[in-house]
Structure formats: structure tokens, C-alpha cells
Amino acid sequence: MNAPILVAEHVTKRFGSFTALNDVTCAFHKHQLTAIIGPNGAGKSTFFNVLTGATPASGGKIFFEGRDITSIPQHEYARIGIAKSFQITNVFKQLSAHENVRVAAQMRTARFDFLRARASFKSLIEKADHLLERVGLAAHRNRIASELAHGQQRSLEIAMALASDPTVLLMDEPTAGMSPEETTTMMNLIRKLATERTVILVEHKMKLVMGLCERLIVLHHGELLAEGTPEQIRTNDEVRRVYLGKN
Ligand SMILES: Nc1ncnc2c1ncn2[C@@H]1O[C@H](COP(=O)(O)OP(=O)(O)O)[C@@H](O)[C@H]1O
Ligand SMILES: [Mg+2]
């Protein structure tokens, strides 16, 4: 197995007196499509937020490529190579698909490139087109985001996340609220993206990830319940008891 690319060590997250994550230790490996699963309320989104720097942990450490990133500011995450798409769709509704991706690409390059802003405008346009193509939205380039179907908005969000050329892409319930057709399209996109970078997926529908992911991490009541291959998770008695019965 490859060296771990992202590591959580004894990560705890409290909201007041409530412990949403309790001493979670696990590793994500390079080029391995991993899903974090668990019933609603298990702490998946909280873990996602801590891993992506959106929420500070109350305790524990996060390492990326061997470096302690526990305390780095949120905006540094994209620069070091970690990108995310949240559970809630997060696009600029009044901008076109192409403008959304262009803005995302621009935010990524602005700090390094602003003196060459004019020269790089063309490359931003090209990059946005390339990313729209990548997620299957080339034909919808000029449509206003709010007019796109829900599944297309989620794909657009992924194109925006890819604008920073991330080493690791994390997605929180990318298929939430999708029709079966949209879900299939999204699963195919995730499979494709996972061939070129490390993808980490939060999902509560376990069946969906069984045929897709190489490794599963199961959270329950904020604790790491199990981790392993889909087969190991499927046959894990504790997982079956707390999870399979419910979904
Ligand atoms: N900002 C917050 N303040 C207080 N409690 C929270 C907050 N965010 C999440 N929680 C609680 O933490 C638990 C885990 O939530 P969450 O991480 O969203 O679970 P999941 O994504 O697995 O459904 C839930 O009981 C939820 O109510
Ligand atoms: Mg969630």
C-alpha cells in the first residue's frame, strides 16, 4: 500500500458539551478511493469539515503528506492541494457555469499571477472550458447556474473544486438529493476522477459506495467503528448491527 497522504490522529470535535467526534485516528492512502460512511448524525460532515480545514478540531492532529496541517488557515488548503465540495451546493447562482469555474480558477491563481492578469485571462477561459468538459458540462457552458438541474450544479461544484488542481478531493454526499440517473452520472464521474487523484467521499448510503470504493471508514456516534475493504465492512458484525439494520 502507498504511504498515507492524509492522516487524522486522535481527532476530537466538541460543540459545547456535545462530542461530535471522539478520538478518531485513521489514514487515507494515495490514489485510493475511500468513503467515510455511517448513519445520519454519525459525525461524517463534522469529520469532513475538520479534514478540509473548514472547522478547527478540539483536539488531535491532521497530517497531509507528512506535514502537520492542523493549524493552517482555511485558505491555505487549496494551495497545498486539498479541495472539497460540501454537502450543500455552493455555486454562484446568478453566474453561468463557465463563469463559476473561471472565478474558481481565478481565485486559485490570483495571488501568484495578478501582475500577469491580462495575459492569463485567456488561460483561465481555457482552463474553465477544460474543467467543464471534464465533468460533462461542456454543453451547458453558458447556462446560468440556477437553471441547471441539481445534479449538474453538483458537477459544476466539482469542476470548481478541481480548478485548484488538488492532490486530494473530498466530497460530502455528492449524490444527496439526486435522481437515480443523476446518481449514476455522478458515480461515473467520481470513478473517473479517482483514476487521477486521491478522492475521499462522505456517504451515508452504504450500498452506493460498496461497488465504488476500495476502502471504507465507518463512523458511529462520532467514533471510528471499523475500517477496511468493502468485503471486510460488509461482513463486520458490529457494522451490520449498528448500520445495516437502519438503511
Ligand atoms: N455546529 C454544530 N453545533 C452543534 N452540534 C453539531 C454541529 N454540527 C454537527 N453537530 C452535531 O454533531 C453530530 C454529527 O453531525 P454531522 O457531522 O453533521 O453528522 P453526519 O454528517 O454523519 O450526518 C450530530 O448530532 C449533529 O447534531
Ligand atoms: Mg452530513
Task: Give the name of the CATH architecture of the largest domain.
Answer: 3-Layer(aba) Sandwich
* CATH topology grouping of the largest domain: Rossmann fold
Q: Which whole number gives the mean pLDDT?
A: 91
CATH class assignment of the largest domain: Alpha Beta
Measured by DSSP, the beta-strand proportion falls in 25-35%
Q: What hetero molecules are bound to the protein chains?
A: adenosine-5'-diphosphate, magnesium ion
N- and C-termini, Cα separation: 31 Å
* Computed CA radius of gyration, to the nearest angstrom: 18 Å
Descriptive notes:
The chain has 247 residues and is α/β, with parallel strands linked by helices. The protein folds into two domains: 1-74 and 169-174 and 182-188 and 197-247, 3-Layer(aba) Sandwich (Rossmann fold), CATH 3.40.50; 82-165, P-loop containing nucleotide triphosphate hydrolases (Rossmann fold, 3-Layer(aba) Sandwich). Helices cover 38% and strands 26% of the residues. It has nine helices and ten strands. It has helices at 44-51, 76-80, 97-113, 117-134, 150-162, 180-193, 206-210, 230-234, 237-244; strands spanning 4-15, 18-29, 34-37, 59-64, 67-68, 82-85, 168-172, 198-203, 215-220, 223-228. The strands form two sheets. Strands 6-7-8-3-9-10 form a six-stranded mixed β-sheet, sandwiched between helices. Strand 1 (4-15) and strand 2 (18-29) form a beta hairpin. The longest helix has 18 residues, at 117-134. It is globular and about 50 Å long. Bound molecules: adenosine-5'-diphosphate (ADP) and magnesium ion. Adenosine-5'-diphosphate (ADP) binds at residues 15, 18, 20, 38, 40-46.
